[in-house]
Each structure stands twice: as C-alpha cells, then as structure tokens.
C-alpha cells in the first residue's frame, strides 16, 4: 500500500479527478494554495496498492504535465499601449509535484 | 511516532474530533472534498506514539463506521407522485479511510 | 527525499512562507482548522532533499516558535468593569507541530 500525494494546478484538477476515478483509484482532494506551482493548486491524496503506483503516476503525468500554451494578446484598454504585445504569448501551464509515501497500515471502516 | 491520516464524512467529523480530543490525541483537520467517500469529507491528521495507534483506530471506527440509516419519506411537492416512496429508506452513511504513516522525526517548537 | 508536514499558527504563516521561499524550499500550504494549536492553523507541505531537512526545521523554529506576547488591555465598553484588567496581559502565541516523513518516490512532471 502506498499513499500518493500530488500537487497539481487547479485547471488540470477536474480532468485528473475524472481520469483517476475512471481507473478506479480512491482519491481525496485537499484545497491548497500557492507553493510548488503558480497559485491555485489542488492536492490529491491517492491510496493505492503498490502494483498500481506506476499507473497512477502515468495518469497524473498525462493529465498535468507542464506544457506551453499560446495566450491571445489582450487589447489595451484606455489607450495605454506601452506594454501591449500584439502577438500571441507562449506561457507555461500545468505541472505536478508528486510524493509516493510508504503506508504501514490501511483501513476502511 | 506515527501519523494517522483519516478521511471521514463531515457528519461524523465533530463527534470524532471530540472523542479524539477527550483521549488526548493531537489532531488537525484539513478541509477536503469528494473522493474516497461521498462528497463532504474532512481529513484528520493525528500524530501519536506507536503504542496509541490502535486506540486512535478504535476511536475512528467507533465514531465513523459505515452504517445503515433510516431516512423518512419526503412528501411529494406539486403532485408528482411518480417517484414517491411512501416508506422509510435505508441508506449507507459514515465510513472512514485511514492511513498509518511512519514518521522519521517529530518536533514541537 | 523527505516530506515535512508542519502545522503552524496563521499569524506566522506568511513570514514562514517567505523565509522558506527565500531559501529555495518548495512549499504548499493547506488550509487547516483547529487541532494541535489554537484555532486558525495552516499546514505546510515541504518537499526537500535529506541534507536540507535540518535547515527547514531551523527556519520553522525561528519563525514559529511558541513565545510570550504582551497584549494591551482593552478599555471596557458600556461601563462593565467587572472583568477589566488595567495592565498588559502576557499570552502564548505561535508554536509549530512538525512531522518529517520518508518519501519512496519524488516526481515533477
Ligand atoms: Ni486508461
Ligand atoms: Ni474512551
Ligand atoms: Ni537564512
């Protein structure tokens, strides 16, 4: 038995929860703020048998991996064009920080 | 030293906190959502000496164990009697998912 | 690799986050309530290499250690002077409860 603790961005949170649930993982979400990643994080607590740890890690990687995203330029409001960038910007989104912890006992009551 | 992480239903949360505190366990509650159990969960973090782990587990089991509960029938509103069940329903409530984790160091500052 | 879980008082939370970040620790904050300390707690999750565990503990101790604080007397409102204490009161604030947990795998995606 292992406990996987995964901190992911809020925007990937629902997709990750759906994917883990579809593969019958037991998941709890904790609200978290700031930290490992840009603000707006969710911490997942996943309890799983040793043999399925790699599958859970694969699902987290698939759904949360850090990647580049194009952001459309926003038109300046009120004529302040000093900082206006007239072409799409590439920003980094997503990412996950994952700990696999040993479990001495696991119970369901 | 062990760290017990217990995910329980919100409705059992106050009773569990009271019982653990009465038995001098050190407890922290984390807000959690969805997951192992039906939505509305609380995650308890309990730090305890090895010798008292079983006592903590007993208290969690006593206060949170999954059980059947009778729910009184709700009268239909607006005359829609199609799905009306005129006798009490038995539903499952409670339940706890519990991890006991090894602790390498414990400090109080 | 270790996972440090630290429960500290809200009033020390921002200072601790700043100090840990300045020393390049990866930190996630979880909202927590009641428990080990007086109500209003924050739980920090800190992932770190074994060699830097002591440094993290030093930073937590420096920023959160339990200490005495003088509280100025509050003038009674509405003439009820029965419980009025006309000199500063010394109360205990701060404090931290810290677990260091072993980590079997650590990943960043
Ligand atoms: Ni699949
Ligand atoms: Ni008792
Ligand atoms: Ni320093």
UniProtKB/TrEMBL annotation, chains A, B, C:
This is Cyclic-di-AMP receptor. It holds the Pfam family CdAMP_rec. The keyword Transcription regulation does not apply. InterPro entries: CdAMP_rec, N-reg_PII-like_a/b, N-reg_PII/ATP_PRibTrfase_C. The lineage of its organism: Bacteria, Bacillati, Bacillota, Bacilli, Bacillales. Keywords: Receptor.
């Amino acid at each position: 038995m292992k406990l996987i603790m995964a901190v992911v961005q809020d925007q990937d949170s629902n997709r990750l929860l759906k994917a883990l649930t579809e593969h019958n993982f037991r998941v709890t979400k904790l609200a978290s703020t700031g930290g490992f990643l840009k603000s707006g994080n969710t911490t997942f607590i996943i309890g799983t048998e040793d043999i399925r740890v790699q599958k859970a890690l694969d699902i987290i990687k698939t759904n949360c991996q850090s990647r580049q995203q194009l952001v459309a330029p926003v038109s300046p409001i009120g004529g302040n064009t000093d900082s206006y960038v007239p072409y799409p910007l590439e920003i980094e989104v997503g990412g996950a920080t994952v700990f696999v912890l040993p479990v001495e006992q696991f119970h369901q009551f």
